[in-house]
Design a protein that fits this description.
Layout: E1 2-4, H1 13-23, E2 28-30, H2 32-39
Parallel strand pairs: 1-2
Length: 40
């Protein structure tokens, strides 16, 4: 599974950052730019 880190959000930046840290070990995390480059 791939999570696009700059294409998801929550109620605050703090919750967003905590969420990304929590799920990091369970999926691959990339930015939109990285994913587009990979697919090109």
């Amino acid at each position: 599974m791939t999570q696009v880190t700059d294409a998801c959000l929550t109620y605050s930046q703090e919750r967003h950052d905590n969420s990304l840290r929590t799920i990091k070990g369970y999926c691959r995390q990339v930015t939109t730019e990285e994913l587009i480059a990979e697919l090109s």
